């Protein structure tokens, strides 16, 4: 079966392409090690921003009758890795000279078509989406009918926001992938609340004590809020953050 990997141009909304000083990154073999500064954005804001970008992608796709894209932890992890790499080396390549798209194979994802959008300088989800949609190459990736899955990364360093979108279709079906509206929603009642946070904590406590987890694969995927492939107290806190945001509206 044919595999297609697409390099999608980068968008720098406030500056031209910049290679950061070598002190910020180093390569070891084929592994990229990034030494990052303190991130001036909370994990809660990252989750809210990345979910919002995916929702906006799906809004654009729905307008055109296209299938909505789903997310899952491994792909979110890839996007988180790539966005951190771009803060140190602003390119579709990695600091060791390999392709940024190598992250899919590095994380053992079974793909048939993949692409990457990157951007810097846009301060919020709407502005970065406006920039991508106003660029033919980026828009074509967002609206590509072949893609089924998406991962989004967001980082803020020295007051500048960086963004990564990863798109993928696959020979395999990732049955536990979900729409962004389901992120953190574990008991299938249609809302993200304290009950969902409690379910995440219960799973974490059970595994930490050497017992089996209490969440099935689908719920564990939705409970992994920060894309690190681990469900723990941090995820429960992020779920509660979403609940607090929704309650204050």
What brief labels describe this structure?
4-stranded mixed β-sheet, two-stranded antiparallel sheet, alpha+beta, 8 helices, single chain, 249 residues, 18% strand
Short description:
With 249 residues, the protein is α+β, with helices and mostly antiparallel strands. It is 38% helix and 18% strand.
Notes on the structure:
- The radius of gyration is 18 Å and the shape is globular.
- The protein has 8 helices and 6 strands.
- A hairpin with a 2-residue loop joins β5 (149-157) and β6 (160-169).
- The chain starts with a strand and ends with a helix.
- α6 (194-208) packs antiparallel against α8 (233-247).
- The protein is α+β, with helices and mostly antiparallel strands and 249 residues long.
- What's the average pLDDT? 88
- Global structural class: alpha+beta
The major beta sheet can be summarized as: 4 strands, mixed
Name the beta content range: 15-25%
Number of distinct beta strands: 6
Write the layout of secondary structure elements.
Blueprint: E1 4-12, E2 25-28, E3 31-34, H1 43-63, H2 73-88, H3 102-106, E4 113-120, H4 125-133, H5 136-142, E5 149-157, E6 160-169, H6 194-208, H7 217-223, H8 233-247
Parallel strand pairs: 1-4
Antiparallel strand pairs: 2-3, 4-6, 5-6
Helix pairs in contact: 1-4, 6-8
